[in-house]
């Protein structure tokens, strides 16, 4: 009986707090802040990038090309995070092919 009373008293507050936290966390994510990789060039902070294929398939490598004007590094570390499911981030190393162009397989 005591547990039921405590759950009845604190339950609605806990549910409301949870709903508020969920609404706040999803409102912070704006897809306009991210570059959607596809065969169409995408530019973000003066860095342009494109994929060889429209969508990446599991276990099938696809080439990614990044043009970064003024970059002097031999390699570029790319971190990709999926927004549909939280499965961590994948990291890839792209190599400089000259003329500020970096390429690699994703």
Can you offer a commentary on this structure?
- The protein has 106 residues and is an alpha+beta fold.
- The chain has one domain.
- Helices cover 25% and strands 34% of the residues.
- It has one helix and six strands; from the N terminus they run H-E-E-E-E-E-E.
- It has one helix at residues 2-27, and strands at 42-44, 47-51, 63-68, 75-81, 89-98, 101-105.
- Strands 1-2-3-6-5-4 form a six-stranded antiparallel β-sheet, with no helix packed on it.
- The longest helix is centred in the first third of the chain and has 26 residues, at 2-27.
- The N and C termini lie far apart (57 Å).
- The mean pLDDT is 80.
What's this, in brief?
With 106 residues, this protein is α+β, with helices and mostly antiparallel strands.
Q: Overall mean pLDDT score?
A: 80
The major sheet is characterized as: 6 strands, antiparallel
**Topology, number of strands:** 6
- Please report the number of helical segments: 1
Helix content: 10-25%
Secondary-structure element order, N to C? HEEEEEE
* Total number of domains: 1
> How are the strands ordered across the major sheet?
1-2-3-6-5-4
Cα radius of gyration in angstroms: 22 Å
Low-confidence stretches: none
End-to-end CA span = 57 Å
What overall geometry do the principal axes of the alpha carbons give? Answer: elongated
Strand content: 25-35%
What structural class should be given to the helix and strand makeup? alpha+beta
